[in-house]
Amino acid sequence: MSAKLCFVLMPFGRKPDSGGLMIDFDQVYERVIKPAIERSGMEPIRADEEQAGGIIHKPMYERLLLCEFAVADLTTANANVYYELGVRHAVRPASTILVFADMTRLPFDVAPLRGMPYKLDAAGEPDDVAATVEAISTRLKAAREVLTDSPLFELVDGMRPQEVSHEKTDAFRSQVEYSKAIKSQLRDARSRDTDAVKSVEQQLGRLEDSEAGVLIDLMLSYRARKAWPEMISLVERMSKPIQSTVMVQEQYALALNRDGQGEKAETVLLDLIETRGPSSETCGILGRVYKDRWASALKDGDTYLAAGFLDKAIATYTEGFETDPRDAYPGVNAVTLMELRDPPDERRSELLPMVRYAVKRKMALGKPDYWDYATLVEPAVLEDNERDAKEALVKALGEIREKWEAETTVNNLRLIREYRDRRGPVASWHREIEDELTKAGSRH
User: Fold this and answer.
1) 42 closest CA partner among 141, 142, 134, 187
2) pTM (2 d.p.)
3) What is the distance between the alpha carbons of residues 408 and 200, in angstroms, rounded to a whole number?
């Protein structure tokens, strides 16, 4: 007999709580919620709405309706989670477990519901893990005997749950297993080549029938292989609801730009800013579009056009950093390009400490990754601080996941070195850092 399915509603990645603590929800899932579900004899299925750009899609509703059990993490009052919890309570009278970080102040409407707190440490990762896993597992086992935990079914007389045929639930379970298998194949294909990723796509058949999470994985797999035409084609064949999400539009523009369609990428991003407002990610990608057009104009010998694109790139990256000063990516690109102006933009000395602080604050509140350490390398190079640059380099080398990450950093460092070399001799350690990153990237 198959294990009962337990659907998990929660945010993805690291998200700040009301006090500014960056909570690592992936760690909460992997170390606490998933083991607790498995210990209770069930099979966990995690919602993938964050990976799909926040879209609520058909498989999401099926999971809310057809999974026998569910766990909802109410920490940070995530809007998607609350919406999905409302749908779940409307269709399932029982078997929905609520959890939340113990410092969370629940909104008035859900405060009376019986939820279970869990502990976090100062880094926003699970604390007292063994006890929490046992407590959630015990609550899930007890939920098998509970007749009603939905306030709708408890308070409204005459409410009856909708009966679902076993054919529907059997088909749903088969689809869940199929999606898991496809995602596993994509993980393998990403490490091989573009043809391997294409082969997985061909198994999907009609894209309209595929889960949003699978399509996002497929899109990012093409990105990992730098298969820009394939990535563009995939997005253009997606259904409109998935295609129009912010994340997909941003990645579409990124692929267009890398494929040499900078003007079209610019149009996509400007439309996105017009309709959804600026963000550090959107402005960061648009800044890269202008940066590439600046480089192209320089190569063609059009110095005046190049100067215009350089200023647009600086302004766009700066806007992105000002939109969210916690995201150092657009900030570090802004100060790097400020260094390349002739003469250099004096604002770089004001922004550099802010960029460094943004990175270190993010690292203090969560688990540092490659981009955190790589972002510290560039300010150190801009300030000719060899000790700090090499210290950050050593840590960055151990965190490289994909070749393109190191290549991006090397390109920025090379630009800084080449422009400075025109003004006077540059220390040899600058090139040494580039060489080490290039070697490390080639191993991925």
Assistant:
1) 141
2) 0.71
3) 28
